[in-house]
Amino acid sequence: MAYKYIDNYREQGARKKLVEELRKKGIEDEAVLKAIGKVTRHFFFDETFWNQAYKDIAFPIGEGQTISQPYTVAYQTELLHIKKGDKVLEIGTGCGYQTCVLMEVGAKVYSIERQEKLYERTRLLLPRMGYKANFFLGDGSKGIASHAPYNKIIVTAGAPTVPEILLSQLNIGGTLVIPVGDENSQKMVTILKTGEHDYEKHVLDTFRFVPLVGERAW
């Protein structure tokens, strides 16, 4: 994690190049691209690795976790179709990069992380960057029922199945985006809640996430 909060022309230029790269890869939502172009991703890296921050790659952040590839962050965010003021539950805070992107597109974020060291680090870092989310430490596979229902739910780790408890925490008309598969690869799944017990499911592209660990997952 960076200790010096410096954002010079070099970093700003690198973000612009990253945005154009994501556009070429198929990201079309201008609000999402604008968010990627604004969030200072290098702040999540040790200063030694700033030259890696705006490559379209995942990168280790400790505790066996990674900061997600920017394309993956943009892809999931685009699928959520966030409207300003949407209440969004994020399962897997990690370093907080996805959290910042969600907030930049107008979401009110409730984010839960099971790794205490990551939780503490992110809870302190994001306010210093100007982002005020609602952070929770716990088992994300069970969601956060005390603050439900949510307009949108995003899961940033691979699950073996879709946890029913997360669907129960969605508003009618709400969307869940979750990677589902085995520990080696997952299909991105979107589920639209059309009624109290009615859902519309779409299975999309293949990704590889770290496993979702918890009572309702691995």
UniProtKB/TrEMBL annotation:
Keywords: Cytoplasm, Methyltransferase, S-adenosyl-L-methionine, Transferase
Catalysis: reaction(s): [protein]-L-isoaspartate + S-adenosyl-L-methionine = [protein]-L-isoaspartate alpha-methyl ester + S-adenosyl-L-homocysteine
GO molecular function: protein-L-isoaspartate (D-aspartate) O-methyltransferase activity
Methyltransferase is among the record's keywords: yes
Major place of residence: cytoplasm
Subcellular localization, as worded in the UniProt entry: Cytoplasm
Positions annotated as active site in the UniProt record: S68
Pfam family name, one: PCMT
Signal peptide: none
Keyword presence, Transferase: yes
InterPro entries found in the cross-reference section: PCMT, SAM-dependent_MTases_sf
EC number from the UniProt entry: 2.1.1.77
UniProt-listed GO biological process terms: methylation
Coiled coil (UniProt feature): none
Function description: Catalyzes the methyl esterification of L-isoaspartyl residues in peptides and proteins that result from spontaneous decomposition of normal L-aspartyl and L-asparaginyl residues. It plays a role in the repair and/or degradation of damaged proteins.
Protein family (similarity comment): Belongs to the methyltransferase superfamily. L-isoaspartyl/D-aspartyl protein methyltransferase family.
Protein name: Protein-L-isoaspartate O-methyltransferase
Protein source organism: Mucilaginibacter antarcticus
